[in-house]
Amino acid sequence: MKPTNSPKTYRVKSFGCQMNVYDGERMAEMLGEQGIMPAPEGEDADLVVLNTCHIREKAAEKVYSDIGRLTKGKTQTKAPMIAVAGCVAQAEGEEIMRRSPAVSMVVGPQAYHRLPEMLEKAVKGERATDTDMPAIAKFAALPERRRTNPASFLTVQEGCDKFCTYCVVPYTRGAEISRPYADLVTEAKKLVDAGAKEITLLGQNVSAWSGEDGKGHQVGLAGLIRDLAKVDGLARIRYTTSHPADMDDDLIAAHGEIDKLMPFLHLPVQAGSDRVLKAMNRSHTAESYLKLLDRFRAARPDLALSGDFIVGFPGETDAEFEETLALVDEVKYAQAFSFKYSPRPGTPAATMDGQVSKDVMDERLRRLQDALNRDQLAFNEASVGRICEVLVERKGKHLGQWLGKSPWLQSVWFEGDAQIGDLVEIELVEAGPNSLAGTLRETALSAA
Ligand code: 5AD
Ligand code: SF4
Hints:
Pfam families: Radical_SAM (PF04055), TRAM (PF01938), UPF0004 (PF00919). This protein is of the alpha/beta class.
């Protein structure tokens, strides 16, 4: 490969989960430290980072078509420098390097702190792949956070040891690691100094976080949340994603005790049939999941619930799928994510008997989503008349309109005197399936 000019502008395109969004922001910060600027809207960037997701279908094909789009009809000097990051890079990095000469860098989710060195090589025309998994070292090597959104993410835990039989995460993100308590408290304070009012603690299995607090005591996620709640200027705390097996008494109690911990819980269940759950290696039953939710609701009666579902796991019968619908009817989720099962190479479920046909999966997904949409609208309608705080995150489509989130993670729009980062008191007046309209009562807390 010929040497390339040093890139002056970049664009990071993140796909998939919120952790990828977080990683994308951190990569952007690192490129900024190298003096590379974000490419202006609508203009080509000199360097494009494709921060990929491998959780479901066609992940790799999507990367190749993105690469094709970026390089189509362009000479080597005009085409952008391309880095492939994220979970597809981790799983299929070598193959990508072999198949796509246009790619200069392949960097896994645990190695992106080394992007500047890789970039130096790429500028000299040397292609570089780094899919090591040093985990904690990455966070220590990242630059300080100087700028952020009112609602920010903070990765506290990475990786997963659960090995659900359909899931690639334990292979692409590696074993569970918890970032040290002191680092997290420091980073949370930095985020608040940089303008964050809300922090969502992120982890593939965030409730498995553990660490030693400032007094040397071993604490779990609830202990961390309790201390973060003491950070001045931080108004809201959320966390995602959890596994039912790691929700301890302390975390349940925290929902009743800590005002800053928002009344929202994303707790994936995946399916309603115990046979399917066992085949998925989920280590919980439908009943144990429902009992767990009862305990959370007892601690925080206005808790809004969210979940993840997979339809058409290998061997799932019609009757077993009906059990998923029955569970949905019982829980009444405020929102949820639902997916057709997608065989992931290298996972045990990919080679299981009884792969379900596309038509059956389509039909099951449609029925499940009808039920989930019905419950989401019902939850939003039941919120009309509530007065709550909304964190203003951005401008709405029309002049004078603002968009923010309610404590229950609903999108709320309103008009009036506000600015991004304000926490305002809103009366919810009208409900739609995906958002609510509100009226501004007063500015409860204003941005610094
Ligand atoms: N097929 C379909 N959905 C999947 N998920 C994870 N792996 C797969 C797969 N192979 C879903 C699960 C998980 C969410 C992040 O993605 O519901 O909770
Ligand atoms: Fe994947 Fe979540 Fe299961 Fe871990 S707990 S293997 S991340 S689905």
